[in-house]
Amino acid sequence: MSAPLSLSRPGLAAGRIAQALRRATTPDYLGWLEHTASAGGCTRPIRLTGALTSVEADTGRIIREVRTDDLPDRAIYKACGNRRASQCPDCAWVYAGDAFQVVRTGLTGGKTVPATVARHPVVFATFTAPSFGAVHHRHVPQHTCAARQRCDCRPAPCRARRDAGTCEHGQPAACFARHDTDDPQLGLPLCPDCYDHDHHAVWNGFSGELWRRTKQAIERQLAALCRRRGIGHVQVVTDSGRVRRVPPVRVSHGKVAEMQRRGAVHFHLLLRLDGVDPGDSGALTPPPAGITADDLDNAVHAAARQITVTTPPHPDRLDGWPVAWGEQVDVRRVGSGDGAVTDAKVAAYLAKYATKATEVTGHASTRLTSATIGTYANPDGDHTARLIDACWRLGRPTATRTTGNAGQGCDRQGRLDTTANPYAGLRRWAHMLGFGGHFLTKARRYSVTFALLRDTRATYRRTEDNGTETLTVGTLTYLRAGWRTDGDALLANTAARQRRESRRIGREEVAHDAWLTGAAA
């Protein structure tokens, strides 16, 4: 539950309590609670007005017709669906649950994904950004704690260098502090003037392209390995009826982007080896017997070392910026048997980061405009203010000349195109420090989609009352966002928290009963 809606929060206005009491004493209070249950817990629900018609799916018979004028508050409440936990904890909780299912079904199967994928080799890889300048960091050289979540190990000095001296701007080039996990200095440059904020912003903006080319390189490495081991290509029939020869192995991925404290994204990836079925190109089959998780591990490291993207020319840097991975590329095998990296742990880990964005850097604004950029961007300000300024400045409208593909600042012949700007995304995503990708993406074949999970949940809700699937036809228009009063928000969120707790206790009781039954057998 979000802090602003808690009765225990210091300074809670008496007016909010009075609003809650007035709502709770109305005759239709219980009906109002039931009416708002679908958006209960949402920080800023969407209110809609209009009419809803329920139709029996099989016969087309109209079962019920409701107008919002006859409903409490004369509106329908719909949860905002925001994935960011800092914006709406309840909607982010639902999103995290869906993200967990999307990630885990790609490892274990289920929900239309065959269970045989559990036998496919899978590795968990982490790609980091390179250094753009020295920053304060916390490093524990050797862990002696029982659990990393409650780590109390003593960290090493941040940057202990006796002969470091000072930089050209007069700032110390060393730091002997042993930073705590909540130290506000973590992620900040030792010298903001030495730090390359322009390169940092560009790296965030082009990191998605870097990953796309890296995955292509991984698959090329594996295809070459198959040729060396005598594993031939496979002939498949495409949707258009053409016959193509393709490598016998392919990589399906699930990817989560995590924003580091310094404001650079790094990617956590699940890479699964799949084979190719000549009779059904869309089938999920195991890879050839001669290709293992160790081969995938080697291919990942080789691709990370060799792939570098050079960005198109920019008026501030005519030769562009190199975009490559940092030195830390970590690859671990999922389900190796030691219990360190299991499918459940990885899925929970990635689902947690899928609900986060730039909050760890201390910045959490909405999309910036010309009217609001001055509040956040400052070329002489703190670290995030300089990053935002770099995004806004580099993303300014400008004509560029490149020799790359169309859509990268030039037309199909590589000529000057004043309507296209490959750096325009930096300004559009300045509030995300230049990163414009989604925080959770996956390959089409990896697992189920969020849309399928949402549709399944909606179908269940339509049929749980009478067992008959109904279709709801709505003629609705947007009224406004948010609860009518702070008191309404308090009551609805409290009721939603109680429902979630009841469901959690119910699941635990069911699991306990199942365990007792199994033990007795």
DSSP strand (E) fraction? 15-25%
Largest sheet: 6 strands, antiparallel
Query: Share of helix among residues?
Result: 25-40%
- First and last CA, distance: 41 Å
Order of SSEs: HHEEEHEHEEEEEHEEEHHHHEHEH
Low-confidence stretches: 1-11, 399-419
Silhouette: globular
Mean pLDDT: 85
Taking all Cα atoms into account, the compactness measure Rg is 27 Å
Features:
single chain; 521 residues; alpha+beta; 6-stranded antiparallel beta sheet; 4-stranded antiparallel beta sheet; 11 helices; 14 strands; 32% helix; 17% strand
Describe the fold and architecture.
The strands form 4 sheets. Strands 4, 7, 8, 9, 12 and 13 form a 6-stranded antiparallel β-sheet that branches. The model is unreliable at 1-11 and 399-419 (pLDDT under 50). The protein is an alpha+beta fold and 521 residues long. α4 crosses α8 (383-394). Helix content is 32%, strand content 17%.
How is the topology of this model organized?
Blueprint: H1 14-24, H2 29-35, E1 46-56, E2 62-67, E3 76-78, H3 89-108, E4 122-127, H4 197-228, E5 234-237, E6 243-246, E7 249-259, E8 265-277, E9 280-285, H5 293-306, E10 308-310, E11 322-324, E12 329-333, H6 343-353, H7 373-376, H8 383-394, H9 424-428, E13 440-442, H10 450-463, E14 470-481, H11 486-520
Antiparallel strand pairs: 1-2, 1-3, 1-14, 4-8, 4-12, 5-6, 7-8, 7-13, 8-9, 10-11
Helix pairs in contact: 1-11, 3-6, 4-5, 4-8
